[in-house]
Write a structure and sequence with these properties.
Elements: H1 9-16, H2 18-22, E1 31-35, H3 42-58, E2 62-66, H4 73-79, E3 88-93, H5 94-103, E4 115-130, H6 139-148, E5 154-157, H7 163-175, E6 180-183, H8 187-195, E7 201-205, H9 206-215, E8 219-223, E9 249-257, H10 262-275, H11 279-287, E10 291-292, H12 297-318
Parallel strand pairs: 1-2, 1-3, 5-6, 5-7
Antiparallel strand pairs: 3-9, 4-7, 4-8, 4-9, 4-10
Helix pairs in contact: 1-10, 3-10, 5-12, 7-12
């Protein structure tokens, strides 16, 4: 479920828009929107951009509630206690819905059964980047060195079990290479040490490294999306470099509590997809390195199932765990 979904949204919206008129009783006042991470981060940014646009178009009121902790688990678990009336929603993403259920020894929810999928919002690739003076001028240079010296080429990431870490574990399995993983407590330090040349390369989400790439303090070698990213059109995908089918993204999506009525799901999905067509919103999301997604609730539900299975395999293969 990628960008081509948006090509069919316009027609589908014309058929579905009457639903908003039919669901006159929704919403009943302000909608609480849970962001399972602290203010100022990427998930918070996407949540505020989206809810502001939906509010402007539909006249709905939202209040953002930041509930960070445990890799997004605390905030998302709060949604399981909400009534199924659509008055409380949350922003789920790759980590707390697809990775954490396997990564954490104890997690207070079932991401496939305790929530109602509503709409996929955006996705962003991971980027492999090096200090611009590095001897690794191309991605294949890293791969060749890792093959010749297993476990010697050092890779910094924002932490064990993050999308960045697991994406490169998946790549390692596919390419039969082993990097030396150097996890950090967040992207900032992982990026800083790559800039300083203390590690051979960094694997991190595009928004966390984009400003450094633009300033010239980092050189991007490859992205993990299936298509080149609009923010870095000259940087190849790993797939196009000969690793067919490789893809990894950090996506964000709106979810509700379990058993959300179908008419409310449809009303929300149509309103969100309408917001995702707004030129200013698209420009904002693209400029920070992400790609607008969209699509039906059913498409997101199917995608979530696939992602849940895929990342569970990656976690098991990597051996990463969090108590």
């Amino acid at each position: 479920m990628k960008n081509n979904v948006l090509k069919t949204i316009a027609g589908a919206m014309l058929l579905a828009l009457p639903t908003i008129g039919m669901a006159q009783s929704y919403p009943q006042g302000t909608i609480e929107f849970i962001v399972p991470f602290s203010a100022g981060g990427g998930t918070d940014f996407a949540s505020r951009v989206l809810t502001e646009r939906v509010s402007a178009q539909q006249g709905w009121n939202f209040v953002i509630e930041n509930r960070g902790g445990a890799g997004g688990n605390i905030g998302l678990s709060q949604l399981t206690r909400a009534k199924n009336d659509g008055q409380v929603l949350a922003m789920g993403q790759t980590s707390n819905m697809a990775i954490n259920p396997t990564l954490y020894a104890n997690i207070p929810y079932d991401s496939l059964n305790d929530f109602t999928p509503i709409a996929l919002i955006s996705s962003q690739p991971m980027v492999v980047a090096v200090n611009p003076t590095s001897s690794y001028g191309e991605f294949e240079d890293l791969v060749t060195a890792a093959r010749e010296n297993p476990g010697k080429v050092s890779m910094s990431t924002p932490g064990s079990g993050t999308v960045s870490h697991l994406a490169m574990e998946v790549f390692g399995d596919q390419a039969d290479v082993e990097f030396m993983h150097v996890p950090y407590p967040g992207a900032a330090q992982a990026v800083t040490d790559a800039i300083g040349g203390h590690v051979d390369f960094v694997a991190a989400s595009l928004p966390s490294v984009l400003s450094h790439i633009r300033s010239g303090s980092l050189k991007a070698l490859a992205v993990t999306s299936t298509e080149r990213n609009q923010a870095l059109p000259d940087v190849p995908t790993i797939a196009e470099l000969g690793y067919e089918g490789f893809e990894a993204s950090d996506w964000k999506a709106v979810v509700g509590p379990a058993d959300l009525p179908a008419d409310i799901v449809e009303t929300l999905n149509v309103a969100i997809n309408e917001a995702l067509q707004d030129e200013r919103l698209v420009e904002t999301i693209v400029n920070e390195g992400s790609t607008v997604e969209g699509g039906t609730a059913e498409e997101f539900a199917a995608y979530l199932q696939t992602e849940h299975e895929r990342w569970a395999e990656a976690v098991a293969s990597s051996g990463a765990t969090v108590e």
